[in-house]
């Protein structure tokens, strides 16, 4: 049975709204029809086999059906939303018991002797059927039906709440990931524009090439980086362009080594995931005033497992930086959070802070089972 409750009712609000009867017909009519057909057939066969008179049993069920339906729908669309779902349990059970008793009395002491017995089943109405014991038994039997329908409503309500909570959690996750991506983009752009500004001040011939590479990087950030996953080849090409830009900026003052091995065909990764580690190496390990600085970047891919190791020297004026200072940039904070959200248990991140070397080692599972944003 498909039953829809208003959001105010589910939330436990004091206000409640009865659903439009037309919506009951439009929405889930087939499910309701199937439920009642199954109910009549099941109990008709059950009672028919018990009294050895299937016609009698089915006619009783059919004649009583409108009263039972009225009780069930009144309970689902009025009593449950107004009392049960708003945690007014005592009132709910009192009203339900009184209503059930009234309907059972009407069926037993009015419907049975004055309609069912004379017109449909002459052998049905006996003195035993009019006793108080039989009345209590009928009340219990009617509550079976009410209980079944109420369980269906509660289970559906619980399922809808779980779905809503899951959607809300997913929306919050996506919003946080977008926020983190948004922080990475201007952070990187700020650093790159600083590099371009430095070259233009020196009237370097590399400035036009830097503008061209920066244009390619912006294209990646604006379009490809909006996807949940991108080909690993694009991410690595993005890093190569970034390294080229930094090489133009620092020239011979920095020795930059970038190596990659393994097969990257078919591998995908969350965009802008690797760059912050590379960017951090240049930001904290290299200075425009330092000679003989170096950065080592090594990427390996084996059986959907990516290994990234980034090392940089601790130059003279940087040697006093602590591990906390080295890792406190916006880029690394964001990438740590993104790793937690996107890859959960499918990654490991190690930071090595030696007297002369700062290194980051990332192990990442790129298989399809990893979580996607």
What is the structural class?
Answer: alpha+beta
- What's the pLDDT, averaged over the residues? 76
Helix content: 55-70%
The topology string of helices and strands comes to: HHHHHHHEHEEHEEHHEE
The largest sheet has its strands arranged as 2-4-5-7-6
Largest sheet properties:
5 strands, mixed
Number of strands: 7
Separation of termini? Answer: 35 Å
Provide a count of the helices. Answer: 11
What is the oligomeric state here?
A: single chain
Overall body shape: rod-shaped
Rg of Cα set: 36 Å
What fraction strand?
5-15%
Q: Point out poorly predicted stretches.
A: 1-17, 321-328
What's a concise summary of this model?
The protein is α+β, with helices and mostly antiparallel strands.
List keywords for this structure.
alpha+beta; 11 helices; five-stranded mixed β-sheet; two-stranded antiparallel sheet; 61% helix; rod-shaped; 373 residues
Would you write up a description of this structure?
It is a single chain. This protein is α+β, with helices and mostly antiparallel strands. The chain contains eleven helices and seven strands. The chain has a five-stranded mixed sheet, with helices on one face. The protein has a two-stranded antiparallel sheet with strand order 1-3. Strand 6 and strand 7 form a beta hairpin. Helix 6 runs antiparallel to helix 7 (207-222), helix 7 runs antiparallel to helix 8 and helix 9 packs antiparallel against helix 11 (330-342). It starts with 6 loop residues before the first helix and ends in an 8-residue tail after the last strand.
């Amino acid at each position: 049975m498909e039953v829809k409750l208003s959001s105010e009712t589910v939330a436990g609000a004091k206000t409640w709204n009865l659903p439009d009867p037309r919506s009951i017909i439009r929405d889930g009519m087939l499910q309701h029809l199937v439920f009642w057909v199954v109910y009549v057939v099941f109990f008709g066969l059950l009672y028919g086999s018990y009294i050895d008179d299937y016609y009698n049993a089915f006619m009783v069920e059919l004649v009583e059906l409108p009263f039972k339906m009225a009780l069930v729908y009144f309970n689902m669309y009025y009593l449950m939303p107004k009392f049960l779902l708003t945690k007014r349990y005592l009132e709910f059970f009192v009203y339900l018991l009184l209503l059930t008793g009234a309907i059972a009395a009407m069926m037993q002491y009015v419907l049975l002797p004055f309609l069912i017995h004379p017109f449909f089943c002459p052998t049905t109405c006996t003195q035993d059927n009019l006793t108080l014991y039989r009345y209590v038994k009928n009340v219990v039997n009617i509550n079976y039906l009410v209980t079944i329908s109420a369980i269906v409503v509660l289970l559906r309500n619980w399922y809808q709440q779980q779905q809503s909570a899951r959607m809300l959690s997913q929306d919050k996750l996506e919003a946080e990931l977008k926020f983190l991506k948004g922080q990475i983009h201007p952070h990187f752009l700020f650093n790159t524009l600083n590099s371009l500004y430095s070259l233009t001040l020196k009237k370097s011939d590399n400035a036009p090439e830097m503008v061209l590479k920066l244009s390619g990087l912006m294209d990646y950030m604006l379009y490809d980086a909006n996807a949940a996953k991108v080909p690993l080849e694009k991410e690595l090409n993005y890093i190569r362009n970034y390294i080229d830009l930094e090489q133009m900026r620092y020239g011979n003052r920095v020795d930059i080594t970038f190596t990659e091995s393994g097969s990257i065909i078919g591998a995908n990764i969350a965009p802008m995931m690797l760059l912050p580690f590379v960017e951090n190496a240049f930001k904290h390990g290299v200075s425009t005033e330092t000679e003989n600085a170096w950065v080592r970047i090594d990427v390996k891919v084996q059986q959907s497992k990516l290994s990234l190791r980034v090392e940089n020297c601790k130059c003279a004026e940087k040697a006093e930086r602590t591990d906390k200072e080295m890792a406190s940039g916006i880029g690394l904070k964001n990438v740590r959070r993104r790793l937690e959200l996107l890859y959960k248990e499918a990654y490991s991140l190690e930071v090595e802070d030696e007297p002369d070397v700062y290194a980051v080692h990332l192990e990442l599972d790129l298989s399809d089972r990893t979580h996607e944003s």
